[in-house]
Predict the structure.
Amino acid sequence: MAVAEAVGLTPRGWVFPSYITEPEPLSWFDADRLLHRGQDLLAAAAGSGLRMLVPGDTGWPAGTAADELPCLWVAGNVDLGQLLRASVTVTGSRDCSVYGAGATKQLAAGLAQVGYTVVALASSGVDDLAVRAAVEHGGPVVVVGAGEPLVSVSGRLREERADAGGFGVVSPFPPGIPPSQPRRAIAQRLLASLSPVTVIPEASADSGAMQVAAFAAELGRTVCAVAGRFGWDHSDGGDRLLSTGGARLVRDVDDIAAAHGASGPPVAPGGPVLFEVTGLASWDDGRWRSRKVPTVHVLADNAERAADVVFDLLFGGRREPAVLDAAVRSPDGSYRPIQISIG
């Protein structure tokens, strides 16, 4: 809820459409009415093939900005963690040039061919072109919405046979919530966090992709950009990132793969390697509590052992119910969600 309030959303507007007509305003303390409204919302979502994910569910993308949210709404493959194990975010201007479109298609197709999941916004321009190119080449995709109709987006992907490579459509907001600037900001932050690398093939200085790049840098992700044509306003944003050191230059998929590997924790010389573990810890001491796990680097033989070490550090000796939704990144930058629980 803190994220919602920070970008100007009320708790009521977070969950329910602002255009609901009621004789009286819905009270946040009217538990029965809230419960019925929530049940109706879940039923409507299920009838449309959508599912609500909460922390602790299989597929919850722990270690991302999803941990700041109360839930996610998902269509397609709800195991987002599986889809995101090796992923790259591709985003940019809605009004891209022929040059930007060509760069986007070439990079997204190459990423799909070597096994990366392409992550993008449910938007026109660079994001849409990246999704279409990845699907065309049999690659998995994750599309992030900000109140767009998840059902129609997932239906389009099925028509394009995205299910062959696997796809997920995810939004912080339930179906029926219209897009707004604050909601787009939340979706942009989620987008920026889902992959260790964000690539901007083309973006103008006022493009929303610049906000995604800022979020990605804030969250410790690697930002990459393609150099634009001289004097073109279309590519001012990406060129500024490159000139100020805010982004790495990429010319092909090999450059992105190198950035992906560099985004992981340092590699230990021989034997076990260093894994990066973050995520969400939850426990019951008479009241269920959840806290984000600070980044920990663990020397281990595999991702499971790295998660076990962090769980022991947090909950060793406890008998009360406790859960760790761990996000484990390997030295090559690949991501793996692991859930451990007791009680």
Q: What stands out?
A: DSSP finds twelve helices and 13 strands in the chain. The chain has a mean pLDDT of 85. The first strand starts at residue 51 and ends at 53. The two ends are 28 Å apart (CA to CA).
